[in-house]
């Protein structure tokens, strides 16, 4: 039985005080998450550098981290410098993305660097594995980094699958989906994962992010590539405070259980909204408890009295 693997995104704060950030990370660690992912100025919002946040998590908590690297904010010189800095402090996993548009963030009139895109950056990191740096200089020894890429549903299935296969050819070893809020989106991701051309060895982490309020739900509707139905948004309209947040966790947990039992997902990527780690910690506990109960139920022996033998229920979809 494949164990559920849960990574949780915890974005650094917008100001340099990291005490609350570390407290949130401790709560996630206590809940049993496998790793914390750290975004690179997600939604084009300026935050404490992911490099600094990852150093603190490893030094203070000895927590496994996956650091996002965006093609948007740095040229190749700065990208290699950042990656070498992460590697020197023990980081071995990256999520390489192109980056959100500057227009949606703090500096909408600014210009992204985009000296290359996520594919170009992946190709260069793949070369680091072979002992060659971004500028064709040989390294004394290979840089052993694992990296993954993003999976979003803004494109048709065939276009998205082709894009993912290009990332795989560039060295990607896993994929993180954008948050989903309905079974249709979940099914779309499972359809791509289960395509006969998609490598069975590639984990697909299903993204889930609890909704915390009606206004938050309306904001999520504006995020490119994320589908949130109006009926779900309206279900939060009469809820406020803790009631809204608890309902958001329940909604996300229901989706997680469906993904686990109906679509065979075993890799999950939970996104923490606004440093509210109690929500993604609760979601982690909810899914782990369900997975354990589901596993016990599935493997409970059933006596076949006709043939006087014990059989085990054991029929699963391909895990994600």
TrEMBL record:
GO terms for biological process: methionine biosynthetic process; tetrahydrofolate interconversion. The keyword Flavoprotein applies. One of its GO terms (cellular component) is cytosol. InterPro entries: FAD-linked_oxidoreductase-like (IPR029041), Mehydrof_redctse-like (IPR003171). Its cofactor is FAD. Keywords: FAD, Flavoprotein, Oxidoreductase. GO terms for molecular function: FAD binding; methylenetetrahydrofolate reductase (NADH) activity. It holds the Pfam family MTHFR. It comes from the Bacteria. Belongs to the methylenetetrahydrofolate reductase family. This is Methylenetetrahydrofolate reductase. The lineage of its organism: Bacteria, Bacillati, Bacillota, Bacilli, Bacillales.
